[in-house]
Prior knowledge:
Elements: H1 24-46, H2 55-62, H3 67-85, H4 89-113, E1 121-124, H5 126-140, H6 145-158, H7 166-174, H8 179-187, E2 202-205, H9 209-226, H10 230-253, H11 263-267, H12 278-283, H13 292-309, H14 315-325, H15 327-350, H16 376-403
Helix pairs in contact: 1-3, 1-13, 1-14, 1-15, 1-16, 3-5, 3-9, 3-13, 4-5, 4-15, 5-9, 6-9, 10-13, 14-16, 15-16
Amino acid sequence: MPTARPDPILNPVSTTPPPGTRFESIDIIRGAVMVLMAIDHVRVFSGLPAGGPTPGIFFTRWVTHFCAPAFVFLAGTSAYFYGRRHPDLSRFLLTRGAWLVLLELTVIRVAWTFNFDFAHYLMAGVIWAIGWCMILLAVLVRLPVPAVGAIGLAIIVGHNLLDPMLPGFIPTLQENSLAGLWKILYIGFFAGPIAIGAEGPRLIVLYSIVPWVAVMAAGYAFGTILSAEAARRRRLCLTIGLSATALFLVLRGFNLYGDPVAWTAQVHPSGERPPLPALLAFLNTNKYPASLDFLLMTLGPTIALIPALEGARGVLPRWLTVFGRVPLFFYLLHIPLIHALALVVSAIRLGAVSPWLFTNHPMGNPPPPEGYTWSLALLYAVWGVAIVLLYAACRWFAELKSRRSEWWLRYL
């Protein structure tokens, strides 16, 4: 199979290190997180809740938590390698970031909803966040690489210091004309116009800018580690990955720091949260905004896995590599495909396509109608069909990019 040309959006140089070397492990990881991500996006249209109440539903959601951190982190790493080969890194990040934000607010929004109700509903998802993080990284990359990495790590480690202040801070935001901006930057889950009293669509921020810009900055600095000699690179990846995982176990286990909700508080009924078994509560870290514990729990194992995947062979690594080399194409295609499959499932199960499937997914949507919700088995069956169809499409597109060089291919 021909090797795909570098994708300049999320994978600018397919994470290509010094000439003559290639990290297939990064393509495999990127492909794996794309495949896992699709599970949660099928769940959105299945009507099953996120994270509960059964262990099966909980882990269906939990396993997909590895996706956004790896996606954003490796986007930063790709930017590092692009910058080593091209002098226009800042300009590249600005233009690609703006392109991703535009895609999120237009093409991706329609794919999620299958409606054109732009006047009342917009969503800021992971592609929005990556786009804005690239724009901010365009400024940061003018600093030395160690400084970029230090800033990223400082924000990742320190942003949970805000947690004790937020309960009193959020009511103040409701009366502040900059409330929307603060929620876009950090708090997330904002529904409404940017400024108090302003007219405009409801913007639901799923991924706030902080701490994701810090994750991308840390990924950018991580490029120096991937550039190291092979034995040292593997040693550093294992050390960093396992240390981050161990730190998560300590911080979370003793509820020392790094998450706004102690896991022990989730074991018993607390406010509107249902009680969770101890293991599930321990793993139920905060994603919106991503807490330190959440990032340690997900990025630690991801980084530790890189050496193990170097030189991986077999059918599964080959499949995942195909997805990993055309990540934006996969992302833009998988949402409308899953949505269309949900229409087919609805027509077969209910005898008609449910109007619920044309409302504002994945946020701002009313609960599914009675009798609509899928079983877990059906969820995974639809996911399997989607992945097979996506593999065929992604392989075709990867081969197309390897043969042709039209300018528009660089944007997919």
